[in-house]
């Protein structure tokens, strides 16, 4: 049985999933190849990409890519890989996000962690989506883009680098939906509740308690 009421068209559809090495991104990328869609599995961890592809139903439909999406050059390299391997992407899922460490609260988070969280979630998401949209618009092809945001786009989490990145991403989704919609490209946010995956790093006992409370609400 298909996961979707209207299955993808493997002759037309291709996908790029960031954060495909673990958690939600991995599950989405694996579901896509399971539906017959050729999919780029993009992640910073070669080991995770290889394990995610190896555990998927149709590994022959997966294209591995490993790099740090905090770097703009790496985003361009990912686009080049996607173009060369699949000849254009119709479905983009942006799930990559650096780990959320309880120790990086408002009084402690340093500049590098702050910038990395924003670079991966927001800068890479915007750059990849805009470049993929330009290609679809030029080819007059429809597409769909999905961004993983968070309930903490709207409520504080005492991880200000994370909540502000997701809040900006939530607005980015609205901006892109408005602009790309007229070109037949749907842009949506997926706002998960708490999903057991690898993203949260607990620190102190107090941090763990805070994390458990936050997890009940959604990360
Ligand atoms: N799990 C939850 O409960 C939850 C709740 C709300 C929102 N979200 C969001 O959903 C998305 C997926 O969450 P998850 O829990 O599955 O995450 P996860 O930590 O399990 O997986 C994220 C993946 O992104 C990769 N990644 C991290 N930094 C990267 C970089 N610089 N370049 C390329 N890849 C990088 C990691 O290697 C990892 O495989 C995230 O955007 C997260 O913020 C998750």
TrEMBL record:
Its EC number is 1.1.1.100
GO MF annotations, alphabetized: 3-oxoacyl-[acyl-carrier-protein] reductase (NADPH) activity
Specify one Pfam family: adh_short
- Hey, what's the signal peptide range on this chain? none
InterPro entries recorded? NAD(P)-bd_dom_sf, SDR_fam
Lineage: superkingdom? Bacteria
Q: What class of enzyme is it?
A: oxidoreductase
Asked if the Swiss-Prot or TrEMBL record annotates the protein with the keyword Oxidoreductase, the reply is yes
By sequence similarity, the record places it as follows:
Belongs to the short-chain dehydrogenases/reductases (SDR) family.
Q: State the name under which the record lists this protein.
A: 3-oxoacyl-[acyl-carrier protein] reductase
The species this protein belongs to is Bradyrhizobium ottawaense
């Amino acid at each position: 049985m298909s996961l979707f009421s209207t299955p993808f068209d493997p002759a037309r559809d291709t996908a790029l999933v960031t954060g495909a090495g673990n958690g939600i991104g991995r599950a989405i990328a694996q579901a896509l190849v399971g539906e017959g869609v050729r999919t780029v599995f993009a992640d910073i961890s070669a080991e995770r990409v290889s394990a995610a592809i190896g555990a998927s139903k149709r590994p022959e439909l997966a294209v591995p890519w490993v790099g740090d999406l905090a770097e703009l050059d790496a985003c361009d390299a990912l686009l080049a890989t996607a173009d060369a391997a699949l000849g254009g992407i119709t479905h983009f899922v942006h799930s990559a996000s650096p780990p959320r460490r309880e120790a990086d609260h408002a009084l402690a988070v340093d500049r590098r962690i702050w910038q990395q969280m924003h670079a991966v979630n927001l800068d890479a998401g915007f750059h990849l989506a805009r470049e993929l949209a330009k290609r679809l618009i030029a080819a007059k092809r429809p597409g769909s883009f999905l961004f993983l945001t968070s309930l903490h786009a709207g409520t504080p989490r005492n991880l200000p680098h994370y909540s502000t990145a997701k809040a900006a991403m939530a607005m980015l989704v609205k901006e892109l939906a408005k602009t790309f919609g007229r070109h037949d490209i749907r842009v949506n946010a997926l706002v998960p509740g708490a999903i057991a995956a690898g993203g949260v790093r607990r620190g102190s006992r107090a941090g763990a308690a805070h994390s458990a409370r936050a997890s009940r609400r959604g990360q």
